Amino acid sequence: MKKAISKEQIIDTALKLLSDKQDFKSINIREIARTIGCAHTNIYNYFSSSADLLWELHSALLGIFITMLRKNVSAEKSPKIRLRKFWETFLQFYLDNIGWFRLVWMIYIGDKRPESNIIATKMTKDELDKYMIDIWEELSGYKSNNKKVSETVHNVHCYIIGEVSNYISGRGLIKNTAEFKNYVVDNAIRLLTLSLQEE
After folding, report:
1. pLDDT digits (tens, 9 = 90+) for 9-31
2. Entry pTM
3. Distance from C-alpha of 21 to C-alpha of 120, rounded to nearest angstrom
């Protein structure tokens, strides 16, 4: 008799397995099924391929991240502290979940990106931009150039992805995690400030 499973259960199990592992390739549909306690063919009732599952995981991680960001940033009154918390959240999310970081930013999933993932990514980006527009307007005291803020958030985030990639591969210049986080956040704030003050 087949064990009854749900799409949410598959996603939750896969995310838990992936969070603990640095090597993304060690996660596969058979291992997910084994962990749930069902036949691997049951997974294919919900996902047509591994890539289909990975795109779903990617979208789920965007949701988990933005929920964490809302909690971390919204709790603070000072725009200076919100700015710091904004970038600290990226470091916290990536370094605490290296497998998730690798899935979101480092591995090729496939050409057939579903529309649902494109929408989830745009919604996440729009919310990130909105947070930074509000923070920067409060800090600077003037109306932001929204396009410039969006481009700057993207560019600074790309810097963070590079630093985290070097760090988790053992090629970073700073080995101590707390020191590394402070260094990257300080640089992120500096880069953003320099870019937006050019306006």
Report:
1. 999 999 998 886 766 666 788 88
2. 0.91
3. 25
Assign residue 133 the CATH number of its domain: 1.10.357.10
What is the per-residue DSSP string for the chain?
Answer: -PPP--HHHHHHHHHHHHHT-S-GGG--HHHHHHHHTS-HHHHTTT-SSHHHHHHHHHHHHHHHHHHHHHHHHHT--SHHHHHHHHHHHHHHHHHH-HHHHHHHHTS---S---HHHHHHHHHHHHHHHHHHHHHHHHHHSS---HHHHHHHHHHHHHHHHHHHHHHHTT--S---HHHHHHHHHHHHHHHHHHHHHT-
- CATH code: domain of residue 5: 1.10.10
Q: Are residues 5 and 87 in the same domain?
A: no
Same domain, 94 and 183: yes
Domain containing 186: what range?
50-197
User: Do 62 and 85 belong together in one domain?
Assistant: yes
